Amino acid sequence: MNGIAQDRPTEHAASRWPRPLRRGPMEAVATVLIAAGVLMLLQPFALVLYTYSFVTTLAGVVMFTIVSKFPD
Amino acid sequence: MTEQTGLSGLVDRAALVTPPVVARRVRGLSERAIAWLFITPTMLLLLAINIFPLIWTIRLSFTNYRANRPNATVLDVGLANYQSILTDPDVWAAMTVTARFVFWSILIQTVLGFTLAWLIDKKFRGHGLWTTLILLPMMLSPAVVGNFWTFLYQPQIGLFNYVISALTGAPASSFQMLAQVPLAPWAIVIVDTWMWTPYVMLICLAGLRSIPDYIYEAAEVDRASPWRQFWSITLPMALPFIMLAVLFRGIENFKMFDMVNLLTGGGPGSTTEVASITLKREAFEKWRTGYSSAFAIILFVTVFGLANIYVKALNRVKSR
Question: What range defines the domain where residue B191 resides?
Fold first, then answer.
């Protein structure tokens, strides 16, 4: 009984949360950013990509940390 | 029963020797307070050895601090260290060396590891003994492995050169694995593969053993060939485990230091100078502590990002 009462607000919050801003898709975006940042850091083709790699990875990591708290 | 009696006896003895003042104080504490009492030492230790150095490194990365000049004035340089690292072609070269090393190590380890796991999964006669023998290199210390392979690679007395000589007909002393520019990176890839393929094999073996037999039985009923079964059942179902192994080895190889330092020290020239060797040179040979702190933070953020993806992949495999 208690468990059901506790689940209700979470479910309600999740149903009100916009679908594209839910944890799954947002984590996917963050993962793509991290992967892109790592690839930019390690590629041997363009110095400019290497220069912006850290910012990209950092953005991905910060985003991942934040969106992992979002409802499913 | 005996255990319970022993435990209660121990508790009674502990109660007898506890001074009454302390006993009264402990009895007065809530469960939450006692829980905090137990975890506080661990948390303080964690803060002291993990969190504080990290925060201190972040702070130093914005300064021109040099550890060999502790009395010199420390100036705030803002993002200059980061800017310098991220526009330096030499550091970029070290990153590309790291990338090449990571790519080839992972590719060879994954192919060999999966093949070995597939063979071990067949449960042939003596497969237990073979599994133990294959796992042995993984259990050795990298320092031991580094020294051991330095001897094996010796052009005059090394076993590796003699084996290659026997296979190819080239004289054993005609090539030096650790001192020649085209061979040195491969020397490190070979050692890393020798040491860590068993680990990839173990993860792949877990993936292969998790595939239920009834799927293969259904495929047999449908007259699917072994080749078809491999491509349509074995590989797709073991793929999350393979990805897990790739990600974990990627993270480990990205921050690899000990083996490279022992085998080549980054040489010849800067052929095998991976990112962690550059970091060591900046920090402990040139003593640019602020600069190397910024470099360490860049590597840390990259590894942390990859670790996030790793944990996500791990959860996905667990939920399967």
Answer: 80-318
Q: Do B43 and B93 belong to one domain? A: no
C-alpha distances out from residue B257 to B127, B146, B298, Å: 34, 11, 16
**Does A53 contact chain B (CB < 8 Å)?**
yes
In a domain, B69, yes or no: no
Q: Measure CA B108 to chain center.
A: 16
* Residues contacting B58, CB < 8 A, separation 6+: B293, B297
A33 touches B314 (CB < 8 A): no
pLDDT of residue A5: 43
Mark whether B209 and B313 lie in a shared domain.
yes
Q: Assess A61–B contact: CB distance below 8 Å, yes or no.
A: yes
For residue A4, the model assigns a pLDDT of: 43
Q: Are residues B15 and B99 in the same domain?
A: no
B96–chain A Cβ distance below 8 A for any pair: yes
Taking residues B51-62, report their average pLDDT.
Answer: 95
Out of A51, A60, A64, closest to residue B86 by CB: A51
**pLDDT tens figures, B284-293:** 999 999 999 9
ipTM: 0.81
The answer, yes or no, to whether residue B306 has pLDDT greater than 50, is yes
- Put simply, the chain B residues between 118 and 137 with a CB less than 8 A from any chain A CB are none
Give A18→chain B minimum CA distance, Å.
22
The nearest CA of chain A is from the CA of B233 a distance in Å of 26
